[in-house]
Design a protein that fits this description.
By secondary structure, the protein is mostly helical. It has 8 helices and no strands. The radius of gyration is 22 Å and the shape is flat.
């Protein structure tokens, strides 16, 4: 685990020196390590816990500190247009696929798949740091990215969540194969 974090921090420093986002190497390292982590689930859990507890908050704090709420409130009309431009194509393209593959849970699946929180924030931060966009544009983009993750998820959970199956009484649950006695005849 220490080696993974050393490699991650070296890649983050290199990304920072290249004027890129330091969080991008985490995705690349995750892709490189995916096959290993698929076979070793416990090793996957440890870095994930550290990343979510330590690294992720700094990334989102860095982005959040650059948001101007005054710019957001001054541009509510533009915010609504951006929200429609972001959500309409995603919902329109994901829903037909979800209906085909998820059936009765298509709306729930569509709403949960219509996010882009991490890469949207990375893109906006890159644009701000490279001076491609200004702080007002950054504020609007990050607000849309956050709202397009939170609102559909809340709607999906509130109104479209699939029913949770009730637990069966213990005596109706079939025994595990390891619980069966060897040599027992039926």
């Amino acid at each position: 685990m220490k080696l993974v974090f050393v490699v991650l921090f070296v890649l983050m420093v290199l990304a920072n020196e290249a004027n890129s986002q330091a969080v991008l190497p985490a995705f690349v390292l995750g892709l490189v390590m995916s096959r290993h982590y698929q076979r070793h689930r416990e090793e996957q859990r440890r870095p994930r816990v550290v990343a979510f507890a330590f690294l992720t908050p700094f990334f989102f704090l860095r982005g959040g500190l650059n948001v101007s709420l005054a710019a957001v409130f001054a541009n509510l009309g533009v915010l609504a247009l951006l929200a429609a431009a972001k959500m309409a194509p995603k919902l329109g393209l994901v829903f037909p696929l979800a209906r085909r593959h998820a059936g009765a849970n298509a709306t729930f699946t569509t709403l949960l798949m219509s996010t882009g929180l991490t890469f949207g924030t990375i893109s906006a931060l890159y644009g701000l740091n490279a001076r491609i966009i200004d702080r007002t544009q950054f504020s609007l983009l990050v607000t849309i990215v956050v709202l397009s993750a939170i609102v559909p998820t809340a709607v999906a959970q509130r109104w479209f969540a699939p029913p949770v199956p009730a637990e069966q009484p213990h005596h109706l649950v079939p025994p595990e194969p390891s619980e069966l006695l060897i040599g027992e005849s039926s």
